[in-house]
Amino acid sequence: MARPKNDDFLRALLREPTTRTPLWLMRQAGRYLPEYCETRKRAGNFLNLCKSPSMACEVTLQPLARYDLDAAILFSDILTVPDAMGLGLYFAEGEGPKFERPLREEWAINDLTAPDPYDHLRYVMDAVVEIRRALDNSVPLIGFSGSPFTLACYMVEGGGSDDFRTVKTMLYSRPDLLHKILGVTADAVTAYLNAQIESGAQAVQIFDTWGGALSHAAYEEFSLAYMQRVIAGLKKTHDGERIPCIVFTKGGGQWLEKIADIGCDAIGVDWSTDIGLARQRVGDKVALQGNFDPIALFASPEAVAKEATRILDCYGPGNTGHVFNLGHGINQHTPPENVRVLVDTVHAYKRK
Length: 352
What we know:
- By secondary structure, the protein is α/β, with parallel strands linked by helices.
- It has one domain: TIM Barrel (Alpha-Beta Barrel), CATH 3.20.20.210.
- It contains 16 helices and eleven strands.
- The strands form three sheets. Strands 1-4-5-8-9-10-11 form a seven-stranded parallel β-sheet.
- About 50% of the residues are buried.
């Protein structure tokens, strides 16, 4: 299988020269786009949208119809994996995701098994196939999963949390139980990402959204070690092409060197990290992705362009190893016209 016509994103992840700085946006298919809101209304609810391959394809392509983005990302949710494990995912209006059966009892944790992605998550693989066909090799398709620790947070807490008290109490008082959850979840994530790659994903990202909530020692033991285990089990090539892997720990700036050692091709950095210093710290080991503050998109168009240029200047000379992105997901109230300013500014930038 040949690389896409626009392969700048893949080239940047593999630290090969690019014609311009490529960019995509975390949560680029989302509620800030009126066309997405229309499709979601048609679906009835968010889970229906995720579980319909044709609708998932439709919303995946919407931002690419609007903006000159260098990659598409599969439209799905990180919680599809614990849902397939039988925890009973549902979305409470205004409250976000919840699980009917969070993991609190020892027997339930010991009974946990990794689902077969081609069985319980077939709708995701069908969406990947459909999106690849629709993209017609124009730009690469990114597959993704939550990290084992981030998924475990939701699985134990039963939903989102401000302080992760339940999962952290387990971490400190019964680390054996949390390790059991993380081991099964790491196996599930590995199989899930490999199935996405086999179905057509050309790069994968591991979203470690809550890894930054851990202490220094706990991060290495309960998050980083399990992402390393996932990466060790990932398919590195498919159809004769390298499949790069990105790791994004929100709030993970202090651990860049350690993340760079686990076998990933690129590290996503949030806006709290100076990308120029990050580049010095990781050297030639990995590419970097980031790191525009998504809230800066609410500023004037001139301010958006100025902040994008500052980040590009900060990364420094040489047209290798940088994928421009937000430091986290785009806010649902973002003015769509400011996203265009961001995309155009990044693509017009000429590196020294």
